[in-house]
Amino acid sequence: MNQTAKIIKPKLGLLELAKQLGNVQQACKVMGYSRDSYYRFKKLYEQGGELALQEISRKKPIEKNRVEPHIEQAVVNMAYEYPAYGQHRVANQLRQEGIMVSGSGVRSIWLRHDLESFKKCLIALETKVAQEGCVLTENQLQALEKAKASKEAHGEIETHHPGYLCAQDTYYVGHIKGIGKIYQQTFIDTYSRLAFAKVYTEKNSLIAADMLNDKVLPFFDREQVPLLRILTDRGTEYN
Questions:
Q1: Where do the structural domains in the chain lie, given as residue ranges?
Q2: Could you give the 3-state DSSP secondary structure of residue 231?
């Protein structure tokens, strides 16, 4: 995750959590933001989506050595129209249309617009479609389907705010003389990365439940954050 994504993610999480809780004040308390910040983020997001939140922290660019505006716009348009194309392929395609720009020049423009990777191009494309309601081309549909298949193959998950998706697992720590086998129950909130851990000498469903009842549920109840989903490896202790 790059620096821009790290900056945007908690702001989106704040908006999602407030929607889930139906309580702006509580969401701000959990995420560590003021109410003024929440309403500022909300207004920006409603006006311009994720890109508007990104602009909050973006420094003013240096104009030196910039290409002509029409060339820059053509390169940006190619990122939307052909998100799977690399920088050199885009440069060759534009050259055929009479627009002269090098592969490194294409990449420089993409970096300025946060479009330098396939994943970022797809995020920008999805945002554009959501805002403008434009119809996707065959190339765009193929790129989105390819990304979806890749995400499913690698087991990637989506998480939008604290409590949205948590994970629990059992780890074998080792053997201690006079005690026996030692296991660790670990619970992680996949959004905030808040983690709980507790060691046991057994591995069964009662132990897994004890971890939740003793550590996890009291914390989420105290913070008034609903626990929506728990992901496990479907081991026998979670049946």
A1: 3-55, 69-153, 166-238
A2: strand
